[in-house]
Design brief:
This protein is of the alpha/beta class. The chain has 9 helices and 11 strands. The structure holds uridine 5'-triphosphate (UTP).
Length: 230
């Protein structure tokens, strides 16, 4: 199966510390999936590192598109770190475009990339890559355990949604305005792309990472499933 995996930057680092245990769990799950014959495409977010650099850029009066550029470089730094844990399975460079990622995959490598262009987040990159690669499954690993009716970190009334369709997803979250570093579940651009390309999607917590190979094989997960509808 072709699988696109998005690693939310917010789960990779907390309080200035990178989560090395999680990084090695992700690498090990990706290697197992590859060994099982799956074609895996990985996109990594910038998280705390992105926010730090973008805040500094803001204080230095950089324009919004240049702040996005700084954000993109931090996603590539995280992608580089994860890719180094995959050893000979990866291409020589972190791909900077979807086309370069597809090219690496054609040579039997696992592409591990970050952002591509200003004005979006790596969620959107993952949706684009999932479509371009013909992935049957798009998986987001996030710092919440699925999609909620509202932001569970700020709203105690928020309820977890176990299953919804791509149409319901876009109706609920396609319009939410986005600020860099702040988002509700998924970037609205990604939500629109998931609906447009009818991508079967899982939104999972980091605790599901060690079980990814089982989950891909059909075992239950603790997040949300988004089912495509025509
Ligand atoms: P992220 O994808 O990490 O966004 O990109 P995020 O909202 O912080 O998500 P988490 O917390 O990692 O899951 C970091 C920033 O880099 C810029 C955006 O400014 C984004 O907020 N970026 C990223 C782009 O402009 N284009 C891209 O393709 C990717």
């Amino acid at each position: 199966m072709r699988i696109t995996l998005n690693i939310g930057g917010s789960i990779l680092a907390k309080n200035g510390e990178l989560d090395v245990k999680l990084l090695s769990e992700i690498a090990s799950a990706v290697k197992t999936l590859k060994r099982q014959g799956h074609l895996v495409y990985v996109v990594v977010g910038g998280g705390e590192t992105a926010r730090k650099y973008m805040e500094a850029g803001k204080k230095l009066h950089l324009s919004s598109s240049l702040l996005d550029e700084i954000g993109i470089w931090t996603t590539r730094l995280n992608a580089k770190l994860l890719s180094l844990l995959l050893g000979s399975e990866i291409g020589r460079e972190v791909p900077t475009t979807i086309e370069a990622a597809l090219e690496q995959a054609m040579h039997g490598k696992i592409p591990v990339m970050g952002g591509t262009a200003p004005g979006q987040t790596t969620d959107a990159v993952a949706a684009l890559l999932a479509n371009a690669s013909g992935s049957e499954l798009l998986i987001f690993i996030t710092d919440v355990d699925g999609i909620y009716t509202a932001d569970p970190k700020t709203n105690p009334e928020a309820q977890k949604i176990l299953r919804l369709t791509t149409k319901e997803l876009v109706k609920m979250f396609g319009h939410v305005r986005q600020k860099p570093g702040i988002k509700i579940v998924l970037d609205p651009i990604a939500v629109k792309l998931i609906d447009r390309y009818k991508l079967k999607t899982f939104v999972l917590p980091a605790t599901d990472v060690p079980r990814l190979p089982e989950i891909v094989a059909g075992a239950s997960h603790s997040g949300t499933t988004v089912e495509p509808v025509k």
